[in-house]
Amino acid sequence: MNARLKPGSKADRDALRQDMTTTGCSIASIAVEMRARFRMRPREAWRQAHGWTLQEAADRITNASSRRAGDEVAADASLVGKWEKWPSPSSRRPTLPVLLAMADAFGCAADDLLDLDDRQAMPETERRLLSRPDPTPAESARTPVVSADTGAKPTGTELVRLAADESATWAQWAEASNVGDIALEQLLAETRALAADYLTSDPLPLFVRTRALRDRVFTLLEGHQYPRQSADLYVAAGYLCGLLTWMSSDLGQLRDADTQGRTAWLCAELSGHNDLRAWVLSTRSKVAFWDGRLREAINYARRGATYRTTGTVAVLLACQEADAWSVLGAESEALAALARAEEARVTSRGQDEVGGIFTCQPARQENYAAAVQLRVGNSAEALRAADNAQALMAVQPVRAYGTEAQIHISQAAAHLAAGEAEGALEALTSVLALPPDQRLAPVAHRLGELTDGISRKHADGRATVGLRAAIEEFCVHSASRQVALSPREASN
Q1: Residue 268 and residue 72: Cα distance in Å, rounded?
Q2: Quick check: is 279 in a domain?
Q3: CA 118 to CA 116: how far, in whole Å?
Q4: How many C-alpha atoms does 40 have within 13 Å on its Cβ side?
Q5: Model confidence pLDDT, tens digit, residues 295-331
Q6: In the predicted model, what is the mean pLDDT of the chain?
Q7: Which of 117, 136, 155 is the last residue of a domain?
Q8: Is the bond preceding residue 87 a cis peptide, omega within 30 degrees?
């Protein structure tokens, strides 16, 4: 038996396609030659005849399927490669909706995409459907009720056999999934990595990576999988949209952050996942807070606290509620919320599912406490909390630069309240040295609050003047300002 020839190199395939196109050959003729010369499977031959990559073919197949109501297909490069290899090992059988979408994309008949091996491996009911002129969306998903051979109603044993074929075909569809458990595990691992990287990385490059992973999850959700796998995909999508919400807010794009938050909430509801619900409400509380919608921020935080959760989300929600109350000047409510945060810390159970930005370490909690104490006029308590936060941050395995910057701002504010402008400037040294890409909107906003709070008696002091100038320079080159200006720069 002769060894099976391997397809030629890309250069060989490109040269053949170019030569045949130049001599006026049709795509169908090029596909036939690809099969004969390089021993390709039919579906690969048609793709190569067009000169498309696997991803380009996937995009065209997905678009083609959208024109057939009820036959939508969510294709990606990996799936197209598996469909091309079928019925060989480690492949996937292209269903009738897939074959019809491929045929529309490639500009051929579904029959042209199959050879003898394909037909022998297909369920009998699907072979019958292919013999019909153009299966409808409903027919492509199930066996016809009428005999494909004569058009007469089946009776007796034929009726029983056809009913069994229908059930078998549906079972094959129900059993199929476009995502496996290992793939789901990998998606969650990548989500965890992004949430952790955000604590220490520049936001814009990470935003691009998060968006790309979210798109992968969305594409998978448009396909078919087991209900439990769909729920896991919605959890991943919810955390990724939550992460995009947080990033958009940190980049000063609060309206876009709100949109991401609404989608994250939809995913949380569809998954029925309480931890995700609480974390999404936490992100929405953050957006509302920085947008000045303080009552909404409080309501989101309180609503999130009603869910039975694991990990530290209850701690963060109470801190966020305290933050909003302090801006409103409600001292007793703010301090009561801080006390609930401490109670939540003591009673918390289990681990945070994702971690990174979706966790509330003790240093983060103390940072909130420092800001709250400052706003209600307890500068000594604020400095104590900020110093505690700094000490806790020093022993954490990962130091979040955004949280650390706000800790230093609280220390500086406490020094200013005590009339120590030089101490404030010293506390801000590391903050003012942050590279522009890491000058997040909340940090710039809090620095702006700091300059507004400088007392008149220090207005002419050298340290105070230097502090004002340094903060103004910081804000001019902040990440949020860069994002806001980028569209205009691109249009010049």
Answers
A1: 24
A2: no
A3: 5
A4: 24
A5: 999 999 999 999 999 999 999 999 999 999 999 999 9
A6: 85
A7: 136
A8: yes
On whether the CB atoms of residues 187 and 235 are closer than 8 A, the answer is: no
Domain presence at residue 312 = no
Structural domain that includes position 378: 362-486
Tens digits of residue pLDDT in 51-65: 999 999 998 998 888
CATH of the domain at 467: 1.25.40
Residue 94: asked if its preceding bond is cis (omega within 30°), the reply is: no
The answer to whether the beta carbons of residues 130 and 103 sit under 8 Å apart is: no
Looking at residue 119, what is its pLDDT?
87
Task: Count other C-beta atoms under 10 Å from residue 67's C-beta.
Answer: 10
* Side chain identity, residue 411: Q
Residue 414 token pair: 């406490």
| Buried/exposed 466-483: b ≥16 CB within 10 Å, e otherwise | ebeebbeebbeebbbbbb
Distance CA 415, CA 453 (A): 12
From 115, 136, 157, the end of a domain falls on 136
pLDDT, position 95: 86
Residue 436 lies in a domain: yes
Distances (CA, A) of 357 to 195, 199, 386, 420, 453: 5, 6, 20, 33, 29
Helices marked H in 272-400:
274-290, 294-304, 313-328, 331-347, 362-375, 379-395
CA 149 – CA 244 distance, rounded (Å): 55
* Residue pointed to by tokens 């800001």: 371
d(CA 233, CA 217): 6
Residue type, 39: R
Q: Are 322 and 368 in contact (CB under 8 A)?
A: yes
CA–CA gap between residue 71 and residue 198 (Å, rounded) = 39
| Phi, psi values for residue 358, rounded to 5° | -95, 50
Six-digit token pair at 141? Answer: 């998903």
Predicted model pTM:
0.67
pLDDT band at 152 (very low <50, low <70, confident <90, very high): low
Tokens 């027919």 identify what position?
139
Within 13 Å and on the Cβ side, how many CA atoms surround 150?
5
**Token pair of 131 as six digits:** 């013999």
Evaluate whether 324 touches 338 at the Cβ level (below 8 Å): no
Closest among 68, 118, 125 to 97, alpha carbons compared: 68
Q: Is residue 380 part of a domain?
A: yes
The total number of structural domains that make up the chain:
2
